[in-house]
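Key idea: predict the complex, not the pieces.
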Amino acid sequence: MSGSLLELASQFVVLSLLSFGGAAATLPDIHRQVVDVHHWLTDAEFTQMFALSQAAPGPNVLVVALIGWKVAGIVGGVVAMLAMCGPSSVLAYWVGVARDRFRASPVRAAIERGLAPITVGMIVASGVVLMRTTDHNVAGYALTLATTLVLVLTRVHPLVMLAAGAIIGIAGFV
Amino acid sequence: MPFAHHMLVEQRRWLDEVEFAEILSMAQVLPGPNIVNVSVLVGRRFQGWRGALAAFTGLMLMPLVVVLALATVYSRFADVDTVRHAFNGVAAAASGLVLAMGIKMSRVLRGRMVPIATALVVFVAIGVLRVPLVLALAVLAPLSIWLAWRMRAARKDAR
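Result:
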């Protein structure tokens, strides 16, 4: 395994157990490490991988596979994906085993209630960090905020907004 | 997730609504992608670790192959201006997707000052100050759970 592959794996193994709210919640830290600390990707490449993962079918954790792919090819993609999903899955498995014991436990209720605001803070932070990474001009910010508003206020399908984004992009505004 | 619900509850009837809701709430509390956690929990329930592994592999294999294939194709055309512009637009909209998700989720905190303050501190630490996630959560997660525990105890006393 090359050095960067090992570093990539160890980074996602840690993030896996911190990803309350799913992979999207960890994007600020993924960006911090792969762009700011290790310089594996530029802002533009990070943006492209994020866009590709959102446009592709499948769960949005796939962004991790794309970042791994960008750093170390196909093997990097598979390794990053396994590192991101492995530890949390093993934990889920054992929590499933212990489920009956914890079903009505007040500790579990406190954990659920305590983690809810953490998740909200992480996801909103993720949205803001992504906005600052992906948007380069006023039109970009306007597109992000308009998408946010439409999705909060209406039941429009997210893919419709991504398609609209693509068209606005091709038209050369962002 | 709507697709998972449709397949597990309505089509195959492997779970009833209550079981699905319980598994989903567990999957949401745990770290990791929710849908991956659901697959592991459901797989384990029926076939132990083999089931969990099979469900996980079944869920991830095809999307992984597809997305890596797309990425390979995309890299050929990444220099074409039209493609680049389209993806800039998609990325800007996709950032809005994540923001909207956060705003919608924040509704569960409505009217409760302590959780709102906690969410704000998390937001500033990670989104503005760019504190490493490990550090931020090592401090804030136990604190928030402790606060939730205290509030519960306080409510009990009041009764």
